Prior knowledge:
Layout: E1 2-6, E2 11-18, E3 23-31, H1 37-46, H2 52-57, H3 63-90, E4 103-106, H4 111-125, E5 132-133, H5 141-155
Parallel strand pairs: 1-4, 4-5
Antiparallel strand pairs: 1-2, 2-3
Helix pairs in contact: 1-3, 3-4
Amino acid sequence: MIMIEYDENYLQLSIADVGPVTCNVKTRVRYANLGENAILDAVANTSQEAGIQQKILQNDYSGSAITIEKKHYANIENTLSDFLMEQESAARAFNWWDTVRAVVISGDASQSGLQRLRSCVDNALGQHHDKIRDSIDPLYVEAMGAAQRGQHQVLNPRFLDDMVFCLIPEHDEL
């Protein structure tokens, strides 16, 4: 599974093996300079207009803000494409895309930011864009996953029997 988390302060890309109750992250890269606030910071650094940041959040753009925003999302798309190519080339012996069951987008960026990210993901995935699973609001993806795992644990209490929670031996002196 490819997990893409887009927040105000970062973009995080992860590759994980996911089972019914497990999630083993194989690769995770966080890009602090690609969060949604990077657009606002760039505009603030290049513009003297009062209220331009609020205009961006309201989708009321000046020319320079549009250019900065386009560059930001082009950078995200290029970063995502490079990340995917690295994963694909690392798996030389087999078709890596056959192992990718889903691409999940999550995060607490603005709704418009997440829509623009979805477009970048579509473009970066190319022919594999049908693997995107986005029927759940990105803000609630992690909460839904936690709730499903909790439900599984309640309905299948023996699930926890095989797990080792603490490998530290007991100490009588404590």
